[in-house]
Write a structure and sequence with these properties.
This protein is an alpha/beta fold. The protein is built from 9 helices and 10 strands. The termini are far apart.
Length: about 300
Amino acid sequence: MSNQLNRREFAKAGGLSLAVAALPALGQAQVAKPSNRILKSIKFGMFGEKLSITEKFKVLKEIGYDGVELNSPGGVNKDEALAASRETGFPIHGVVDSIHWGIRLSSPDKATRNKGLEGLKTAIRDTSKVGGSAVLLVPGAVRDAKNENSQQVWDRSIEQIHLAIPLAARLGIHILIENVWNGFLYDPKGDDNQTAHQLAKYLDEINSPWVGSYFDIGNHQRFGKPAEWIRTLGKRIVKLDVKDWGKSNGFCKIGDGDVDWSDVRNALEEIGFTGWSTAEVGGGNRERIKEIHSRMDKYLLGKI
């Protein structure tokens, strides 16, 4: 696929020029064993202790995390976060678009779509400011059959994303589409054997080296097999969110659900994935954050 070649050509160093400066932003470093180059992160808001940004970064680094992901628009002060990152040598690898659910790029209201686009552009600028490499984006949501159906979400979101790509390209920031329970690119009333082919087709229609997949491993366990989604998406996957889901317990601790982690690890090896993985689960104090790190090691990386 020509897009794969373009991604490699356009890849830039991710995070700050710190511990992972040698890794490309797309997470596709050419190493012998990709699983040895998967970096661990959390969403910054998961760490619930009342500490300064710098103190939190120090604790996360001591636990063994490689970096962190912020929110934008809003969230912590980005100048303070950048200063803390530089002081601690702890990278900020990107941000999550914090308004994409409520101010959707797929909204039937044009003014709302415009606001969503400006929010995405703000997130792109903030990612660049803190030295990150990508923005996580939910492109829209299917809300009703008349005004916000699958085809409308497809067309409207792609139109808005294309308007953001020039800024993303100029700053070297990737827009990464997360697979979520938004009724889009899968059948929410369907069975548990659905595939990622619609998501792959959507990304291919956008057709930009600056747009890829932020694949959430647990989000579609209810509807398909995560490892097979990984194999289908292949090099479109730039970053990973890490969570679990089970028929009996819903979203749960990593390893306590129905995700076949052994097959996930095999699939990641097969596509040669390297780069950032970010836990997106219930957080808490440092003991809980340590537990999440241990579970990522055990289930995502296969460490005993």
